[in-house]
Amino acid sequence: MKLLLVGDVMLGRTLNEVLQERPPAAPWGDTLPLFCQADWRLCNLECVIADRGEPWSATPKTFHFRSDAKNVFVLLAAAINAVSLANNHTLDFGCDAMLEMLKTLDGAGIQRAGAGADVPEACRPVLANVNDHTVGLLAFTDNQPEWEATEWQAGVRYVPIDLGDDRAVALLQAIRATKGEADFLIVSAHWGPNWGYRPQPHHVPFAHALIDAGADVVFGHSCHVFQGIEIYRGRPILYSTGNFVDDYAVDPVERNDESCIFLLELQEASLRCLRLYPTVIRDYQARLASSHEAEAIRRKLQGLCEEFQTPTRWHPQQRYLEVCTEPS
Q1: What is the pTM (predicted TM-score) of this model?
Q2: N or C: which end of the chain has fewer CB within 10 A?
């Protein structure tokens, strides 16, 4: 069984305009053959897909990302099976737009976690049957506390990165409960500030607690660049998977146009292999990195993984970095 994860997918602004002229498969560039290799595919959807709504104005916010409702076909073009909606753009155009998106995703058969019409829905896990095994997904964010879903208010699953907070305690309880139903459990974390190749110090014990509670992989994103991978108790912590496709200006130092496709290969619901295929964003498309681009990404990734004492192996012909998840 192969599971594919990519970080932020943002289809708004200029990308939304480009999609008026290009086919739905265009944003995925030449990466689609890798998507086809997987049995199940997940991304963080970093925009609202809707036709209605007005820009959020109840609290200060600089960026508002919305893509036309028809662009759900972009997700379908890559056979995306599930999305994380617990992030700082799901309510960029208010509750009406978010609720429209939920219906659109449901109608397209794309499962979702991390947002809903109320707190029970926002906290509800995804449970997917994949090759006769159950893959689970829980999603949370520590961004936009004003968007926290309540018993009466639509929103996202907001959890401060504080193990003493009641919402963190509830998240750990949810992980334990969901692991009872899932053979393999992914916890999606849209956390921390923008930028930085290293996780916030308090993210590390929090991620460990997620694994201790039953997560099989922590799927992090938010800071726009990839970070090193830690193997904790045999399970990978992807502190940040970076930006997969968007229209953002590129920082020449932090290079937010560089990322990876994260391909997890499982045997009987146990992780056997984690491969990272370097990617870049060019002309509003995700593309597999060239030899030169892949080498630059490889150097950075291996160095960041070494800081966690995570062994890796580069395969130059196939251009992927293998992360060793078992003791050598």
Answers
A1: 0.97
A2: C
